UniProtKB/TrEMBL annotation:
It comes from Mycolicibacter minnesotensis. The lineage of its organism: Bacteria, Bacillati, Actinomycetota, Actinomycetes, Mycobacteriales. The chain crosses the membrane at residues 37-59. This is PknH-like extracellular domain-containing protein. The keyword Membrane applies. Pfam families: PknH_C. Residues 97-289 form the PknH-like extracellular domain. Residues 68-92 have a biased composition (Low complexity). Residues 1-30, 62-97 are annotated as: Disordered. Keywords: Membrane, Transmembrane, Transmembrane helix.
């Protein structure tokens, strides 16, 4: 469901991002020009081809050096894999966070307000259920919704809690400055959460640099919603990207995903201006709570 309706008993579902006119700001100037994006892509392709030609021309003179370099890289990769395995095993040694306690992992108002430098944030909806809606570009739906049923289906999740925060805290406001969606999802074991996180990280990266059709389907009367996804980064265990609304006059959503122990946490931070580390800062506050909950 992509419309920010008032919460029904038990909590309504959060939307896939916050499209303009449906909880976001009024539509402004048209969004990114697709023709320009294609031109830029063509230029990058030409540069890449030139790079390949140059590489082939000089490769014959450096085979011995490249062989030694490849061996060193292989050794480094083995060390990195061992470290990753060790970290994963360490996380698995901790007792899983009980499903009944994950609501306490959601961040406080002061943490969210500090992340976007906006003290007016307030909760306008919350829930403990998944959204059953599917969007056109379903392979990238994990970026667009913090509690998407199709994304979590078949993964073994046991519980989810989510909150939506607006500034000003009015579901029907026409002057929205910031809109935040935050969720925590529990899995039976850390390894199962790790599997989900790894698969979603790979999907997010494949969605980077694309313009996605996030229109809810099926539904002939649904407003067509498009978002351009920037590069996807992976740092300190947090996968992050930014989605720019087509026709939104600069409205964007910074999306980030992370895991700790048996918990997956996600934050979507939307506005015309979003601090560069807003979503990661929010997730780090959740990670700290998870660590405290498991000792």
């Amino acid at each position: 469901m992509n419309r920010p309706l008032p919460p029904a008993p038990g909590g309504h579902y959060p939307p896939p991002l916050l499209p303009p006119g449906l909880g976001g700001p009024p539509p402004g100037p048209h969004g990114p020009n697709r023709r320009t994006l294609w031109v830029l892509l063509a230029v990058v392709t030409v540069i890449a081809v030139i790079g390949v030609v140059i590489t082939v021309a000089v490769s014959g003179n450096g085979r011995h050096h490249n062989s030694a370099k490849s061996a060193a890289k292989s050794s480094s990769s083995t060390t990195s894999t061992s470290t990753s395995t060790s970290t994963s095993a360490s996380a698995s040694d901790k007792a899983p966070v009980p499903s009944a306690k994950i609501e306490g992992l959601l961040p406080r108002q002061d943490v969210l307000a500090a992340a976007v430098a906006d003290p007016e944030l307030g909760v306008v909806a919350n829930g403990e259920a998944m959204d059953d809606a599917t969007v056109v570009d379903a392979d990238c739906q994990g970026i667009s919704s913090v509690a998407s049923g199709p994304v979590y289906a078949g993964t073994g999740w046991t519980a989810i809690r989510w909150q939506r925060w607006y500034s000003p805290p009015d579901m029907d406001t026409n002057e929205l400055k910031h809109g935040l969606l935050v969720s925590v999802a529990a899995f039976p074991q850390a390894q199962i959460a790790q599997t989900f996180f790894t698969k979603q990280s790979e999907r997010w990266k494949k969605c980077g640099g694309r313009t996605l059709n996030m229109t809810v389907t099926p539904g002939e009367n649904e407003q067509r919603v498009f978002w351009t996804i920037t590069d996807v980064t992976d740092s300190d265990g947090i996968v992050k990207t930014t989605a720019i609304s087509e026709g939104g006059g600069g409205w964007m959503c910074q999306d980030a995903l992370t895991m700790r122990n048996n918990v997956i946490a996600q934050a979507d931070v939307c506005g015309n201006s979003v601090p560069p580390n807003a979503a990661p800062d929010i997730l780090k506050s959740i990670v700290a709570k998870i660590d405290s909950a498991t000792g």
